[in-house]
Amino acid sequence: MTVTRDDCLAFDAKDPLAAVAAEFEVPKDGTIYLDANSVGAMPRSAPERLTRLLLDGWHGLRRRGWSESDWLSAPRRLGDKVAPVIGAEPGSVVICDTTSVNLYKLLIGALRLRPDRRTIVSERANFPSDLYVMQGANAVLDNRYRLKLVEDGKSVAEAVDDDTAVLALSTVDFRSSFRHDIAAMTRRAHECGALALWDLSHAAGAVPTNVADNRVDLAVGCGYKYLCGGPGAPAYLYVAPALQDDIQPVLTGWMGHAATFEFDIEYRPAPGIDRQLCGTPSVIASAAMEAALDVWAKLDVARAFAKHRALSELVVTLVDQGLAGPEVGIGSPSDPDSRGGFVALRHAGGAAVVAALGEAGVVASFRPPDSVRFGLSPLYHRYIDVYDAVERLGGVLQSGVWKEARYSREKAI
Ligand SMILES: Cc1ncc(COP(=O)(O)O)c(C=O)c1O
């Protein structure tokens, strides 16, 4: 049965999350931003919160803000608001630093918990920054480790063995949106006595990650994508409660000290998750991020994941029924349980198509060689947005406008 534009309007009319979209700024010019995998939308309350922080906090309180406002508690307070979105226990998440820095901290901390082992298992298709971090962490440890990079994500399980200290994976492939089975891969790591460290960036806020139920040891992820924390938002970091007091902090700064304001000259790690903090929290960025996390706090996250699934299935259905034309295929797995936050469409014209599509009012992203990514948010995307985006893609391809020379110079960002 063919899905029509009217069907999509009807889906929106019945959508239990439809009202949540009103919590976000809507583009006035009708542009459809399918870049939830990159920079999520701005919550409507963010400008007012930031203005209040700048005027009352920065201008009004200055240094007194640390004691009279709640600036110092931001990493934990916001971490506890991220926790339900990734299925974590309260007190097991902090927001701080960047995903790359947090990966570095937790990877080295994890390697030290398995001192007799010499292998880190990951995959070639992992996000390059994660691979660079692994190489840098290994260099700091005198290249004692073998970085075993699996060619095909589906064969990760076989690569883990008794020498594996850490299985370090991104949950979702940043090109194809292939999603690992977190539970199965974590179980496999544990069977071999290894620790499982996940980068949840392209999953959290779109699909379930259930880190506590899946017995994940360690996790990191970006705050600016599906969580909608704003450009350059702080990242989050998860440590399972059972490991928190065993794992030694790697970047030992004052915010992770057991008694920060006693100004001891000896470092003593704080108990629990707080030892993973290093320096001063990013107060302005945290205020923007909290605007989004307060929207998340009002939601039933299971409902959000169900909506995301329906939106991503809609992309697949519409492409399959030919709305984008015959040249477009689906580059993501067909099983929604094996897909992450975006759906990858395949077109040989990739970057140029994305550029031309941008001028047609749909913001998507390109990753080589041929992946056109539609990043979907359950918070603010409507079914009609998906329909119109796929239809506009069809228009761009049918007109051939994307072949104009000006689009071929576009670089992927
Ligand atoms: C999967 C993944 N990991 C890590 C990063 C890098 O994050 P950061 O720049 O916060 O270190 C990104 C950025 O897009 C990403 O997609």
Describe the structure.
Helices cover 36% and strands 13% of the residues. With 413 residues, it is α/β, with parallel strands linked by helices. The strands form 3 sheets. A 7-stranded mixed sheet has the order 2-8-7-6-5-3-4, sandwiched between helices. The chain has a 4-stranded antiparallel sheet with strand order 9-10-13-12, covered by helices on one side. Strand 5, helix 8 and strand 6 form a beta-alpha-beta unit. Helix 4 runs parallel beside helix 9 and helix 10 packs parallel to helix 12. The longest helix is centred in the C-terminal third of the chain and has 20 residues, at 301-320. The chain is globular. The model has no long low-confidence stretch (mean pLDDT 96). The structure holds pyridoxal-5'-phosphate.
Q: Which terms would index this structure?
A:
alpha/beta, globular, 4-stranded antiparallel sheet, 13 strands, binds pyridoxal-5'-phosphate, 7-stranded mixed sheet, 413 residues
Give the arrangement of secondary structure elements.
Layout: H1 5-14, E1 32-33, H2 46-61, H3 65-68, H4 74-86, E2 93-96, H5 99-112, E3 119-123, H6 128-140, E4 146-150, H7 156-159, E5 164-170, H8 182-191, E6 195-199, E7 218-221, E8 235-239, H9 283-297, H10 301-320, E9 329-330, E10 342-346, H11 350-359, E11 362-363, E12 365-367, E13 371-375, H12 383-399, H13 405-408
Parallel strand pairs: 1-11, 3-4, 3-5, 5-6, 6-7
Antiparallel strand pairs: 2-8, 7-8, 9-10, 10-13, 12-13
Helix pairs in contact: 1-12, 2-9, 4-9, 5-6, 10-12
Bound molecules: pyridoxal-5'-phosphate.
